[in-house]
Request: fold
Amino acid sequence: MSESAKVKKKSFSREEWSWIMYDWANSAFATIMLAAIFPVFFMAMAGGEGSLGSAWWGWAGSIRMVIMAICAPLIGSLLAFNVKRRNKVTAGLVIASNKNRI
Reply:
C-alpha cells in the first residue's frame, strides 16, 4: 500500500469551518482597508493637496519599523531568560490585542 493511501483526509467541523471563513474574510477586509482605503484617507486628512500626506504616511511607517527593529530583539532577549515575566507579557499582549479589536 502506498503512503498516499494511508493518509486520511481531515474533515472540519462546523465550528472550524466558521473560523476558517471568518479568518479568510477578515484577512481580505484588513488587506483592502490597510492597502487601499486608509492611505488615501490619511493623505487627504494629513496633507491635503500634493504629496505632503504621502510623505507623512511614509515617515510614520518608517519610524514604526525602526522602533520595532530596535525593540524586538531587546524584548525577546529579556523574555527568553525570565519565564514569569514572559507569561505576564504574553497575557498583556493578548489583553491589548483583544482590547484593540473593540
User: Anything to note?
Assistant: Residues 14-46 form the longest helix (33 residues). The helical segments are 3-6, 14-46, 52-81, 83-101.
